[in-house]
Amino acid sequence: MNQQDQITSKLALEFDPAHLEVVNESSGHNVAPGSETHFKVVIVSDRFNEISRIQRHRAVHQVLAAELAGGVHALALHTYTEPEWRARFGDAPMSPACLGGKAAEGAAP
Length: 109
Known about the structure:
By secondary structure, the protein is of the alpha+beta class. It is built from 5 helices and 3 strands, in the order αββααβαα. The two termini are 30 Å apart.
């Protein structure tokens, strides 16, 4: 299992999120191609109700302690309760950024 899948699996199991995105942002950094060292996590969970942002981040860091002690160099966290998420983005989650589809893979569109 790759690092991104491992992070996704652990967070899904621990937080039972209403919304979860784990984005490998390593390609935007000075690392070898194919690296899994820089991630952005957007997570919406009832587990975050009535706890501060720093407590949310600590909870995520605790779940991902092995990854952070190993190959993950940077972890950008965006943690929300469901009401916070709805107030900010509405009832539907944001669509992921387009990665270019078939054109990015070198195939004809």
